[in-house]
Specification:
Layout (H helix, E strand, L loop, with lengths): L5 H13 L3 H10 L8 H4 L11 E6 L3 H6 L1 H7 L5 E7 L2 H10 L4 E5 L5 H11 L3 E5 L5 H9 L4 E6 L3 H8 L2 H8 L4 E4 L2 H10 L4 E3 L14 H11 L4 E7 L4 H12 L6 E6 L5 H7 L5 E3 L12 E3 L6 H7 L2 E4 L12 H5 L3 E4 L7 H11 L7 H13 L2 H16 L3 H17 L1
Parallel strand pairs: 1-2, 1-4, 2-3, 4-5, 5-6, 6-7, 8-9, 8-12, 9-11, 10-11, 12-13
């Protein structure tokens, strides 16, 4: 492993110096609803649950998307007797979802902040038999701390965009030192594998995207029936996982559609539900209604703001097509596979590099779906509403595209079992 460069040493010293300020920062975040006030000690590395007996596999994902992606993998790993799984994440929303969806023999803790003291307490208490970091989680103290204790470390469902790669290239020695801590890197695609290798990762394999193997999003049958009844025969323009700057584009498309479909219902499900109030305010004279108020759209509702957690399965089932956000702004696009698996046709903007293989496959199968403006979105929506067979065919094609990308869970499982076996040898 390369010697620690000055940039990495500077990071470590900086995190040591900032350690006394971390509790104050966490309490401030808790007051804004960005931390769980009752579990702040977990963020400092103090456990709130006893360590279970037997083998413990630790999986860390930043937020909701990463945690949901590993649920099928967790199920496979737990088939080994006397094995338990510890999941860590950093957001309140991810903790709430994990409380609902994690299987038995699985624990959740908030991830410790990346300071040497918090990481040391966490690792010394839990003593995991392996650490799996999901997507693009490369935190210097936590990864190097695990490696220093002899804990096998793997990057799973690894993803590195061209922009991130350019940033890491400017810190090439630091990147090589950090990636040298990983015993294994399982990349989503060949482009990520090439970038990780170029930065100094030794054991890199393309395993595919775990999100392609995720089961269809669930939906409560009664809530689905109630929502369908409240919408009736109204055409629906659905936009999910939107980011700031996109809601205005969706609303402009809705205004264009209004000339052809005066009863159209626009549903906007923001990537971050706490933005619900901001989106309602953007609606202006278009009568909005927020899902978080526990109400259903009425005939007077122009825009239904779906500012709740874990309900996308409902909305993909009531719409024949959906615009996937993060793609008309320079974010890189959100996961299109959730819509595709539910036979919902996928529409997206030009910025989809976060999920390039998925979008490329879906658009190749659908033969349509890319939009660049509110006018593009409105024009394609009109075509799909006027010819209901078109979105049905596109949705079926999207589902086939999602199926074609599967297999990552099994490839990842085999690699992790080999890693654990080598560690025990």
């Amino acid at each position: 492993m390369p010697a620690s460069p000055l940039s990495l040493l500077a990071y470590r010293y900086a995190t040591v110096a900032l350690t006394p300020l971390i509790p104050l920062a966490l309490h401030r975040r808790a007051r804004r609803g960005k931390e769980d006030a009752s579990r702040l000690r977990e963020r400092l590395g103090h456990a709130s649950r006893p360590r279970p007996q037997g083998q413990l596999v630790w999986i860390h994902g930043a937020s909701v998307g990463e945690c949901l992606a590993v649920l099928p993998l967790i199920g496979e790993l737990l088939k080994v007797p006397d094995r338990q799984v510890l999941v860590t994440s950093g957001t309140v929303t991810s903790a709430k979802l994990m409380a609902e969806r994690l299987p038995a023999n699985t624990l959740h803790q908030y991830a410790p902040v990346d300071t040497p003291s918090a990481i040391g307490r966490f690792l010394d208490y839990w003593r995991p038999d392996a650490g799996l970091f999901v997507d693009s989680e490369i935190w210097p103290n936590i990864v190097s701390g695990a490696h220093a204790r002899g804990i096998p470390v793997a990057l799973v469902n690894g993803r590195m965009s061209a922009r991130s790669f350019a940033g890491w290239r400017r810190l090439r020695r630091m990147a090589a030192a950090l990636l040298g801590n990983y015993d294994l890197c399982l990349a989503q695609d060949a482009a990520t594998a090439a970038r990780l290798t170029a930065l100094g990762a030794a054991q890199v394999t393309v395993a595919g995207n775990l999100k392609a193997d995720a089961p269809p999003l669930p939906a409560d049958p009664q809530k689905l029936q109630d929502l369908r009844q409240s919408i009736g025969a109204r055409p629906v323009l659905l936009a999910v996982s939107t980011h700031p700057g996109e809601d205005e584009i969706v609303l402009a498309a809705r205004d264009e559609l209004l000339h052809t479909y005066p009863d159209i219902l626009t549903i906007i499900a923001p990537r971050h539900p706490e933005r619900g109030g901001d989106i309602a305010a953007l609606c202006g004279t278009r009568p909005p209604l927020r899902r978080s108020a526990g109400r259903l759209p009425t005939a007077e509702t122009a825009v239904f703001v779906a500012d709740t957690l874990g309900e996308l399965g409902l909305f993909y089932r009531i719409a024949s097509f959906a615009f996937i956000g993060g793609s008309l702004v320079r974010h890189g696009g959100q996961n299109p596979l959730e819509a595709a698996r539910l036979h919902c046709a996928v529409l997206a903007g030009p910025h989809t590099e976060n999920f390039t293989p998925a979008y490329d496959a879906i658009f190749a199968y659908q033969r349509a779906g890319r939009v660049f403006s509110s006018s593009d979105l409105a024009a394609l929506a009109i075509r799909l509403i006027e010819a209901p067979a078109d979105p049905r065919a596109m949705g079926a094609a999207a589902a086939k595209a999602a199926e074609s990308l599967g297999g990552a869970v099994e490839r990842t499982r085999l690699a992790i079992e080999a890693l654990l076996a080598d560690a025990c040898a």
